[in-house]
Amino acid sequence: MTALAVPDARADDPFGINAFREEGGSDNAVVLDEVTKRYGRGTLALDGIDLRVRRGEFVCFVGASGCGKSTLLNIVSGLDKATSGRVSVAGRPALMFQEHALMPWLSSLDNVALPMRLAGVPKAQRLERAHELLASVHLGDVVDKRPHELSGGMRQRVALARTLATESQVLLMDEPFGALDAMTRDLLHDELESVWRARGLTVLFVTHNVREAVRLADRVVLLSSRPGRVVQEYPIELARPRRFDDPAVGSATGQITTALRKEVARHGD
Ligand SMILES: Nc1ncnc2c1ncn2[C@@H]1O[C@H](COP(=O)(O)OP(=O)(O)OP(=O)(O)O)[C@@H](O)[C@H]1O
């Protein structure tokens, strides 16, 4: 699986920016109405998901293993199709996974420039932009290094810069920091938060870690065990920047974890 949904290249609109499907003056970047997904004749993965994500909102999804979180992101990204229901997204989203899937033979710079190369952006322009993006995730000094020469955290930062290179306004992140140590993850939270704010991005972020969700989100959406349904939504109105170990983050984490445990237990998962 690739780590990135690369927009279809169009000469007049390489990043698909003009492909935004406006919701009749709506402030929503993502709208899901009664979205259901069944794989073949078998697993019912999602069952009647209704969701509205405002432009610029940061929404985290938590739920039991196998409840359909990745399926949901894949449907929003366009990689997969809903069996029924309506999906509406403002433009073409970019998708980032836990595994960075960088091209091992390319430097950091060329990895970040890749989506722009595929979109037909001229070389000088894409290299300049790739330099800027790497600097924005504090990797300006490793532009020539290849993935095996970087730490896990640095590789995920290159992957984040590459995701941003699509110029998508909607980022879909599927446990992007799940494999990183706590310290590195903390740094990446700061970087993601600053890029999110600076660019006014809309982020849909899947995690198993409730504390991470509370650290980052404007709203945490709890999904039921399979088939995934929205059980509860938690607006997180704590001041930013938040720290992982803030007592208020801990208390919201406790509340959501209790609900998640109940949900997991209800299904004997
Ligand atoms: N391509 C597929 N074909 C058949 N079943 C699938 C397919 N992809 C996912 N599923 C099933 O759909 C359900 C939801 O899977 P999904 O990966 O979306 O869950 P998840 O919440 O992301 O899981 P996890 O938290 O373990 O990553 C699971 O039961 C899974 O086995």
TrEMBL record:
PANTHER family: ALIPHATIC SULFONATES IMPORT ATP-BINDING PROTEIN SSUB, TAURINE IMPORT ATP-BINDING PROTEIN-RELATED. InterPro entries: AAA+_ATPase (IPR003593), ABC_transporter-like_ATP-bd (IPR003439), ABC_transporter-like_CS (IPR017871), ABC_transporter_ATP-bind (IPR050166), P-loop_NTPase (IPR027417). The lineage of its organism: Bacteria, Bacillati, Actinomycetota, Actinomycetes, Micrococcales. Pfam families: ABC_tran (PF00005). It comes from the Bacteria. SMART domains: AAA. This is ABC transporter ATP-binding protein. It comes from Nostocoides vanveenii. Keywords: ATP-binding, Nucleotide-binding, Transport.
